[in-house]
From TrEMBL:
SUPFAM superfamilies: F-box domain, RNI-like. Pfam families: DUF7885, F-box-like. InterPro entries: F-box-like_dom_sf, F-box_dom, FBXL15_LRR, Leu-rich_rpt_Cys-con_subtyp, LRR_dom_sf. PANTHER family: F-BOX_LRR-REPEAT PROTEIN 4, PARTNER OF PAIRED, ISOFORM B-RELATED. One of its GO terms (cellular component) is SCF ubiquitin ligase complex. This is FBXL4 protein. GO terms for biological process: SCF-dependent proteasomal ubiquitin-dependent protein catabolic process. Keywords: Leucine-rich repeat, Ubl conjugation pathway.
Length: 620
């Protein structure tokens, strides 16, 4: 054999891969357009750029504001800017529910799922619809306070205003990066370099990670630039790019087509098995341990290598804890069907953000749980808009061992469906944030689920009498450790008294934006005296919190770690000093918009108590 032959083979494969990639991504029309540019034989029509603001906010995972207001809500992202280019804390902006790592350091924090791919770091999202479908050329995000939270921008092939839904919904990542710290909270226009896509879109999704921020990020508007006709690739991009060789990496990063994972699930049956190498010399347990560090797509790829590793990759022990949230754009009924045989022993399952726009059907979800639900202990279904009453009924029937259920922002579930949750008496954690649960169903849940330790009722606007609910908690939920009543509109000192008397193990209590609580009734003093184990207390935007309340906390709640008294006008620097001296573990103190606490006081407190993050927000 000629010594030149191996080199020719390598070059042939190199050019083959490049040509194969170009052939797969370029249409015949695109190739003809390139020829037109090169030969100048015919003129192309002028492709005018269209600039448009978001017409409508379609979906989101959380927001700081109320469901019945516009202040700090995601709906502020629709239309032209309200604030930009001004900087500061403004109610007319869109604000997500959390920031920093404080929520990961409180008693209600959940254990993370292992095997989450390092490229997936999204914590929240918002989806925006625009008037005209275009091929995106730029996306401008107007950030007005603490920028830097956006980590992914995606485009969808489905037109939300079309009368005929497409057979396949395809998501493509326009831009993605790991979270990065931005110096300073000032406003900016964020315009990342986006990838070209081969379909027009008028549905853009922003995903955010606020873990590195010192305060809530605030977004004012999103501007989509694009053209109606598919742009012609420049001559530079028609040249061979060395990055094109790594096809698998590129597809993993950008390929969000629904069938990507399904092909990986099914292709293992289409190949002949090579030899097992030396893996059959290793103990079974050691191979299982090695494979436990792989993500789901990596397991699917490894299963194609040999029969031995196929058996290991399909072993149900590899799927005890399974998070499909990172692959939300690719999960559908077919995906669940392929996973059924592997998930018969599953205990933790995360289907958050999956299944929307018809990707997962009620029947497909029900079939999966009937096969895989018997051992489930934890089920995450945040933002699962395919869920209905039948789904909740199936969950309660097929998951007898369920202890944790997350239905956060599942706002499509009808109110009567929540009655089924009362059948799961083993529940220890229940998250109903931004759901339509009604009072009757909630009282039934509290009556029969006496093992509850963590309960979130934030922004549940359909509950009529929170005093009655609090009374039931005090009577039935003696093991309660964390309670989120964020923005409940009608709880009074009576309900707080019942709660504090009956749930004395409480370590975390969120009473932010509860306007009916008044310090003059003694409700906060009562809390401090009855709940000595408190580690987190949010009294956000309660104007009546006073020095007496702070001094009672300093005297009785010495384990306090996080305190939010944003907006109070009656707390002095002297009482804060007493609190900081008494609560040695305090790490977060939010005194934003506290009229007696100016920047000079904050600087002094920071100097004397350097281990405490003291936040003072501002508006210009």
């Amino acid at each position: 054999m000629s010594p030149v032959f191996p080199m020719l083979t390598v070059l042939s494969m190199f050019y083959y891969m490049c040509l194969r990639r170009r052939a797969r991504t370029a249409t015949r029309g695109e190739m003809n357009s390139r020829r037109a540019i090169e030969s100048n034989t015919r003129a192309l029509p002028i492709n005018v750029e269209i600039v448009q603001y978001a017409k409508e906010v379609l979906d989101f995972s959380s927001h700081y504001g109320s469901e019945n207001s516009m202040s700090y809500t995601m709906w502020n992202l629709a239309g032209i800017p309200n604030v930009y280019p001004s900087s500061g804390d403004f109610t007319q902006t869109a604000v997500f529910r959390t920031y920093g790592t404080w929520w990961d350091r409180c008693p209600s924090a959940r254990l993370p799922f292992k095997r989450t791919p390092p490229t997936f770091c999204s914590q929240d999202y918002v989806e925006l619809a625009f008037e005209e479908p275009v091929y995106p050329t730029a996306v401008h995000i107007l950030e007005t306070y603490h920028p830097g939270a956006v980590v992914r921008i995606l485009a969808c092939s489905a037109n939300p205003y079309s009368q005929n839904p497409p057979a396949e919904v395809r998501w493509e990542i326009l831009w993605s990066e790991a979270p990065a710290k931005v110096n300073g909270p000032q406003a900016r226009q964020f315009t990342p370099c986006i990838k070209q896509v081969n379909f027009p879109t008028n549905l853009i999704r922003l995903e955010v990670n606020s873990s590195l921020l010192d305060y809530y990020t605030e977004l004012d508007a999103v501007v989509l630039h694009g053209v109606k006709e598919r742009p012609v690739l420049s001559l530079k991009t028609s040249m061979i790019d060395m990055n094109d060789i790594d096809e698998d990496e590129d597809e993993e990063k950008y390929g969000c087509g629904m069938d990507t994972l399904n092909k990986q699930f099914s292709i293992v049956t289409l190949r002949e098995w090579p030899t097992n190498g030396y893996f059959d010399k290793l103990p079974y347990e050691l191979i299982q341990l090695i494979l436990s560090h792989l993500t789901v797509p990596d397991l699917c790829r490894l299963a194609q290598t040999c029969k031995l590793l196929y058996q290991h990759c399909c072993d149900p022990l590899q799927y005890i804890h399974l998070s499909l949230q990172p692959y939300w754009a690719r999960i559908n009924d077919t995906s669940l069907e392929y996973l059924q045989s592997r998930c018969t022993l599953i205990q933790w399952l995360n289907l958050s953000w999956t299944g929307n726009r018809g990707a997962i059907s009620v029947s497909g979800f029900s079939r999966f749980l009937k096969v895989c639900g018997s051992e489930l202990v934890r089920l995450e279904l945040s933002c699962g808009h395919f869920l209905n009453e039948t789904c909740l009924e199936v969950i309660t029937e097929m998951c007898p061992n369920l202890q944790e259920l997350n239905l956060s922002s599942c706002d499509k579930i009808p109110p009567q469906a929540f009655n089924h949750i009362a059948k799961v008496g083993s529940l220890k954690r229940l998250i109903l944030y931004r759901t339509k649960v009604e009072q009757t169903a909630l009282l039934s849940i509290l009556n029969f689920c006496s093992e509850l330790q963590h309960l979130s009722l934030g922004s549940c606007v359909m509950i009529e009498d929170y005093d009655l609910v609090a009374s039931m908690m005090g009577a039935k939920c003696k093991k309660l450790r964390s309670l989120d009543l964020w923005r409940c509109k009608n709880i009074t000192e009576s309900g707080i008294a019942e709660l504090a008397s009956g749930c004395q193990l409480l370590e975390e209590l969120d009473l932010g934006w509860c306007p009916t609580l008044q310090s003059s009734t003694g409700c906060f003093t009562n809390l401090a005296r009855k709940l000595p184990n408190l580690q987190k207390l949010f009294l956000t935007a309660n104007r009546s919190v006073c020095d007496t309340d702070i001094e009672e906390l300093a005297a009785n709640c010495t384990r306090l770690r996080q305190l939010d008294i944003l907006g109070t006008r009656m707390v002095s620097p002297a009482s804060l000093r007493k609190l900081l001296e008494s609560c040695k573990d305090l790490s977060l103190l939010d005194v934003s918009f506290c009229s007696q606490i100016d920047n000079r006081v904050v600087l002094e407190l920071n100097a004397n108590f350097p281990n405490v993050f003291i936040k003072k927000s501002f508006t210009q």
